[in-house]
């Protein structure tokens, strides 16, 4: 039996914490990366890239401090996530997108407004 080296529960906890502060739009690519990471079809090199990008986002270590330069602090994290996302796009299936969107709908329910006729 193959030993699992990735603690998906730990990653899941960190991603849910991130989602609470980041919001729906910023969380979607992070969730998609997480589900691609969990996929057995994703090659090990791509999994390492995802782990690196998510680590840079979640862990408190940053090359550019958000305290000193707030805008640049967010940009370097966004570039990290975007680079990983672009690299693993070929592994994003409709099922992964559905899973992420379904979860986002639960976490961030959208109020639907009905337009009444005049």
What order do the helices and strands come in, and which of them pair?
Elements (H helix, E strand, L loop, with lengths): L7 H15 L1 H15 L5 H15 L11 H18 L6 H14 L11
Helix pairs in contact: 1-2, 2-3, 2-4, 2-5, 3-4
Could you give a short description of this structure?
By secondary structure, this protein is mainly alpha-helical. It has five helices and no strands.
**Average residue-wise pLDDT:** 82
Secondary structure tally, helices: 5
Largest sheet: none
Beta-strand share of residues: under 5%
Main structural class: mainly alpha
Looking at the chains present, what oligomeric state does this protein adopt? single chain
For the CA atoms, what is the radius of gyration? 16 Å
Query: Which residues form runs of ≥5 with pLDDT under 50?
Result: none
Principal-axes shape call: globular
- For the record, give the distance between the C-alpha atoms at the N and C termini, rounded to a whole number: 66 Å
N-to-C series of helices and strands = HHHHH
How many β-strand runs? 0
Helical content stands at 55-70%
